[in-house]
Specification:
CATH class of the largest domain: Alpha Beta
Number of strands: 10
Strand content: 15-25%
Structural class: alpha/beta
Oligomer: single chain
Length: 298
């Protein structure tokens, strides 16, 4: 039996079986609290759903004979790509922002990846990619990464529970978009897709929600600290609208208080998860609601 995301290989763009890389990502459990279901993506090998995309992208690298990739990330995606690269013989050069958390930097250092801290990670990564003739992998743009993300919603539907609402912690919205596409491609019943964002990054949520004060200070949910306008913004907005979904902006205080509440109930999750869970408790949803949990406390 194929492991990890490759359980769904027949529903993904094809990869030769010899090149399928996996660290047993996926197959994450669903917890329940206060009548809300939580998809525990924090239990993936490096602690986030990004492992699904990394497994697929590293497999594509093996298929193409690539030996090095360039990555930009605020942390979690870099950790995931570097970890999978280390395990499957692909050298990873990571461009990260200067304010990357110490915890994430320590983890990245342990992978052996080349880490370059800069004020302009995207610009510098593109330049490096062109000079070295190495593929540049940016989560929000790379279609192979999104292909791996699709397995999350395929796994949710396979679980048998019918969810009316799915809440995503969102930066650029690529996970939400990938899940929307997978639902359409497989003729599954579309739930409402809800985006939860921080006050620092509101590109998506502000199209649906206005009761918040924009912050110029990066969020404690560090993996959501994307300053640039999402390249697939219109596609993400269309996915939310077509699913009859909506969005919310969550304050730092509410994230902190919600994380404490989760911890009191034996769920030690990161701020990204508390952001999404807060939405489940403070928006009026009918039917079963699933929160996508991702990111460990780091």
């Amino acid at each position: 039996m194929k492991s990890g995301i490759w359980k769904y290989s027949e529903k993904l763009s094809q990869i030769n079986q010899d090149n399928m890389c996996s660290l047993d990502e996926g197959n994450t459990k669903v917890s329940e609290l206060f009548g809300v279901y939580i998809k525990r993506e924090d239990l993936n090998p490096t602690g986030s759903y990004k492992d699904r995309g990394a497994a697929y992208r590293i497999s594509v690298a093996k298929e193409k004979g690539e030996t090095e990739l360039v990555v930009t990330s605020t942390g979690n995606f870099a950790i995931s790509m570097a970890t999978y690269g280390k395990n499957f013989g692909i050298n990873i050069t990571v461009f990260v922002p200067q304010n990357i958390s110490n915890e994430k930097e320590v983890i990245l250092n342990s992978t052996g990846a080349i880490i370059i801290k800069t004020d302009k990670p995207v610009l510098e990564a593109k330049k490096y990619s062109l000079e070295k003739k190495v593929s540049y992998v940016r989560q929000s743009l790379d279609l192979n990464v999104l292909e791996g993300f699709k397995t999350l919603v395929l796994e949710v539907f396979e679980g048998g529970m019918q969810y009316d609402n799915i809440i995503f912690p969102v930066s650029s919205g690529t996970l939400l978009l990938a899940c929307f596409n997978a639902i359409k491609e497989n003729n599954l019943k579309m739930p409402r897709l809800i985006a939860a964002q921080t006050t620092y990054n509101t590109y998506i949520a502000r199209e649906f929600y206005s009761d918040y004060e924009k912050s110029l200070v990066p969020s404690i949910a560090t993996s959501l600290n994307v300053k640039l306008r999402p390249e697939k913004l219109e596609q993400v907005l269309n996915a939310i609208t077509e699913s009859n979904g909506t969005a919310i902006v969550v304050s730092e205080e509410n994230m902190i208080n919600t994380q404490k509440l989760l911890s009191q109930n034996d769920l030690d999750l990161g701020y990204e998860s508390s952001l999404a869970f807060y939405a489940s408790q403070n928006m009026q949803f009918k039917g079963n609601t699933l929160v996508i949990s991702t990111g460990t406390k780091r």
